[in-house]
Amino acid sequence: MPRSVEATQQLLAAGGYVADRALATTVHLALRMGRPLFLEGEPGTGKTEIAKVLAAQLPRRLVRLQCYDGLDLSAAAYEWNHARQLMAIRLAEATGEARDRAALERGIYDRRFLQERPLLQALSPEGGPAVLLIDELDRADEPFEAFLLEILADFQISIPELGTIRAETPPVVVITSNRTREVHDAIRRRCLYHWVDYPDAARERAILRIRAPGVSERLSAQVVAFVQKLRAGDYFKLPGVAETIDWAAALSALDASELEPAVVDETLGVLLKYQDDIARLRGAEAARLVAEAKQAAA
């Protein structure tokens, strides 16, 4: 584990993640204190990428639980393999071993019949220590959050038929939320919290140098200036860092050396994902932002 905030910032940078001091401090404290890290912010600001970089740089295996509406314990933590259990019962009946019903019951609820899902996989020693990414928790139903409390507090899962399974080496836990709904206070209290905001111009240019190294400095500066000004507008979905990287790469692939209104209009589908936003920006508004971006990047 990194021993200082500076070392944490360097570890993230080695994985291609440009973090500001505040974010690096929160990540460092989460690692040193063994606390889950709760990252909230707009989509596309790099929350998920932090878990990927930590897994690659520590290094640890990455176990990802992608949350969705209707997610339950059987899909998130564990499920008994009922088909194999039934086969074991029939085999015991055929060999006469089914007479001791208590022993048979203990046997079919053995660990070998347990199908591990992401939460249990992250606690399992097989494969070594893990980084557990619980991605977009706000997409899951509120009752699902209750399943996580034991894991976040004690890094263990209680299975009624088997007992408590506890991690030998606690995983590094990263929880992300796009804030489509409020996550319960019980989850927040168990975590260290950080709001991941859109980067400023200097940091976004630094990100482009790493993530889109083939883009010229001139075009990169204009792209960042354009996106920064665009985010100040009233649009349904503002572009995240991922869209900035994709747009810069797309413009470079078209051999654009600088922003021009025509090429901006033609590539807005890379930057914006809703037709109403594209229609509002295309034309005179895009030309205005191009002129301002060129002036700001000069």
Keywords:
298 residues, alpha/beta, five-stranded parallel sheet, two-stranded antiparallel sheet, 16 helices, elongated
In words, what does this structure look like?
This protein is of the alpha/beta class and 298 residues long. The protein contains 16 helices and nine strands. The chain has helices at residues 5-14, 21-33, 47-57, 73-76, 82-95, 101-108, 118-123, 145-154, 185-189, 201-211, 217-230, 241-253, 261-266, 268-271, 275-281, 284-297; strands at residues 37-41, 61-66, 78-80, 114-116, 130-135, 156-159, 163-166, 172-177, 192-196. The protein has a five-stranded parallel beta sheet. A hairpin with a 3-residue loop joins strand 6 (156-159) and strand 7 (163-166). Helix 11 (217-230) crosses helix 12 (241-253). The longest helix is centred in the N-terminal third of the chain and has 14 residues, at 82-95. The mean pLDDT is 93.
Secondary-structure-derived class: alpha/beta
Q: State mean pLDDT (0 to 100 scale).
A: 93
Beta-strand residue percentage: 5-15%
**What is the topology, as strand order, of the major beta sheet?**
2-5-8-1-9
Largest sheet: 5 strands, parallel
Spans of 5+ residues with little confidence (pLDDT < 50)?
Answer: none
The count of strands amounts to: 9
Describe the secondary structure blueprint for this structure.
Layout: H1 5-14, H2 21-33, E1 37-41, H3 47-57, E2 61-66, H4 73-76, E3 78-80, H5 82-95, H6 101-108, E4 114-116, H7 118-123, E5 130-135, H8 145-154, E6 156-159, E7 163-166, E8 172-177, H9 185-189, E9 192-196, H10 201-211, H11 217-230, H12 241-253, H13 261-266, H14 268-271, H15 275-281, H16 284-297
Helix pairs in contact: 1-2, 10-11, 10-12, 11-12, 11-16
